[in-house]
Amino acid sequence: MTAYRIEHDRPNCIGCAACAAIAPDFWKMDDKDGKSDIVDGVKKPDGQEERDIEEQDLAINKEAAESCPVNVIHLKDLKTGERII
Question: Is residue 77 included in any domain, yes or no?
Fold first, then answer.
């Protein structure tokens, strides 16, 4: 059962690649524009991305989010609706 959601404010990503270096199973760099993408993420019309993840995937994605210098990666607890980061 999915417990958390990764939310990525992709339009404001600067392409530093820290997320992809830390969590390559969840993050990759786009060869076209140099920004990061969520692996198997759902792209929204406004350019945002999201992907639901399991409890065991929280720690690595929290580390990736904390490494982002422009704070465009957020994690949300799907049970409470609370934003973790």
Answer: no
CATH code for the domain of 23: 3.30.70.20
Burial class (CB in 10 A: 0-12, 13-18, 19+), 55: exposed
How does residue 62 score in pLDDT terms, banded at 50, 70 and 90? very high
* Residue 66: predicted pLDDT: 98
Which amino acid is residue 12, in one-letter code?
Answer: N
Domain annotation covers residue 76: no
Confidence of residue 2 (pLDDT cuts 50, 70, 90): confident
Q: Tokens 């990736």 — which residue?
A: 64
Pick from 55, 47, 41, 48: nearest CA to 4? 55
